[in-house]
Amino acid sequence: MVYKSTRDSGVAVSAAQAISQGISKDGGLFVPAEFPSITSDDLQLLAGCGYVERASFVLSRFLTDFSAEEIDACTKAAYTADKFGSADTAPLHALGNDVHVLELWHGPTCAFKDMALQILPHLMRVSAEKKAGGKKIVILVATSGDTGKAALEGFKDADNTEILVFYPEDGVSRMQKLQMTTQEGKNVAVCAIRGNFDDAQTGVKTIFGDKAMAQKLEDSHMMFSSANSINWGRLVPQIVYYISAYCDLLKTGGVKMGEAVNVVVPTGNFGNILAAYYARKMGLPIAKLVCASNTNRVLTDFIRTGVYDRNREFHTTTSPSMDILISSNLERLLYDLSGCDDGEIRRLMKELAETGRYEVSPAMKAKIQELFAAAWCDDIKTGETIAETYNASGYLLDPHTAVGMYALNAYRQTTGDKTPVVLASTANPYKFCSSVLAALGENIGDADEFAQVRQLHVKTGCPVPAPINDLQGKQPRFTQVCDREDMQQVIMNMLHLT
Ligand SMILES: *Cc1c(COP(=O)(O)O)cnc(C)c1O
Fold first, then answer.
1. Is the pLDDT score of 105 beyond 80?
2. Ligand 1 center–CA 217 separation, angstroms
């Protein structure tokens, strides 16, 4: 199978090339030229398998230049009970009313990013062996909080790899910051930037496109790659858990074979929900995709109006991993829905870069609305949803998942659609203690992170994840803060280049 660029359909690279390179030279994102299908026989078979086998099945359909042995080695190394707490890598929790919460946060950093970032380093190593000629891979990450830690944890001490993470100084939770600044490993570095996530992401994208920088790395036998969800190696493992969830529903009788589910996803960069769209495209019985946003509701507005407009105030919210105004992966959806019209995508992305805004054609808008619904809520509604859900069922949502729950309720209320739902739960609530405690009406005063962890535990009895407990007492290693203009220099220093 070949991969094309969303900005140049003439590009044709292998999966290994797409993964090791991260982003196409024209600035476009790699997408498969065609999509494999998944049949009801496949689903029946996979229902009897564990997560590792399900992952191998799906990955082998997309990474056709990887051998079966290579794929099995990657999935087995990534999805261990040791890293995910049990063999149930992505379990479903039934909340009643046909709502099934897909818990994607059992990995080492307690956010759904682990689902992809535990396997990406393995996919990257195999890809680099095939395509990068032994060059050292330099992973650059811009993070709104969770990607950074998950990427650091995935790539720490990986052979022939360096990883450098940039996060917005004031844009992440205290626990997220502590997770990153205390990161261990010989090949890692972390730097705060003065700005928001979009500044960090734009800075990283600019560096990827900088020819002089690329040449300097080349001269030292290195190359950049990306662990952000612009990398195909991030997206393909995310398709797996939607298929896995459906298989689990088949097993428990939550759905009958072929019966449709709706999928609700708290969304930021549009990676997670795009993976659900791709699962649907493969033939997984998904009816509606519900895109949930916080106050940075650029996607809700887009889905409702067909106008994407990032010219608006940026809000820092209690769901920081969704504080994004430029959702990179939307480009992949638009490419697909336009019938792979690379010229159209170039035009839209140029408009976005120059004016911060674009409008899709009426035909495209109609297609989007047929597939997607959207809703958003502010921090107050997010908190209320955490409290309501907890009081009704004893189940504790993190603020991101609560935004998803709010959107689900809003969607069901306006449409009356009673289709069973898979709600993607993207983080463990202990990563966002202060917001969750406040939502439950607890007084947090000036308690530190770990006092808050204990307070939430006393209040709810929910188990504290081991990786959160283990952070206690760790000293920060990385305290550097830089301006966006200095990102290049920080990278050069880390790599000992001039
Ligand atoms: C990254 C993240 C999101 C947003 O996911 P996208 O793939 O960027 O849309 C939502 N919730 C949490 C907790 C996250 O870490």
1. yes
2. 31
Strands of 255-353 (E only): list them: 261-266, 286-293, 307-309
Q: How far apart are CA 373 and CA 491, in angstroms?
A: 40
| Unique residue bearing structure tokens 């976005």 | 352
Residue type for position 148? G
Q: How many residues does the chain have?
A: 498
Q: What is the mean pLDDT of residues 136-164?
A: 92
Phi-psi category of residue 204: left, alpha or beta, with phi > 0 → left and psi -120 to 50 → alpha: alpha
Question: What's the distance, CA 476 to chain centroid?
Answer: 25
Q: Quick check: 132 pLDDT over 80?
A: no
* Overall average pLDDT of the 5-21 stretch: 96
Average confidence (pLDDT) over 379-394: 98
What is the reported pLDDT for 226? Answer: 86
Mean pLDDT in residue range 149-171? 93
Q: Compute, in angstroms, the gap from residue 96 CA to the centroid of ligand 1.
A: 24
CB 324 within 8 A of CB 302: no
Confidence of residue 86 (pLDDT cuts 50, 70, 90): very high
Based on the residue annotation, tell me whether 113 is a catalytic residue of this protein. yes
**DSSP-assigned letters across all residues of 355-369:** HSEEE--HHHHHHHH
Q: What gap in Å lies between CA 460 and CA 384, rounded to an integer?
A: 16
* Ligand 1 near 105 CB (within 6 A): no
Contact in structure between 417 and 98 (CB atoms under 8 Å): no
Q: What is the pLDDT of residue 497?
A: 87
Distance CA 446, CA 282 (A): 50
**Ligand 1 atom index nearest CA of 427:** 13
C-alpha R_g of the chain: 21
10 burial class (0-12, 13-18, 19+ CB within 10 angstroms)? exposed
Closest of 265, 343, 268, 351 to residue 308, by C-alpha = 351
What distance, in Å, lies between the first and last C-alpha atoms of the chain? 39
Instruction: Verify whether ligand 1 is closer than 6 Å to residue 235 (CB atom).
Output: no
Q: Is the CB of 427 within 6 Å of ligand 1?
A: yes
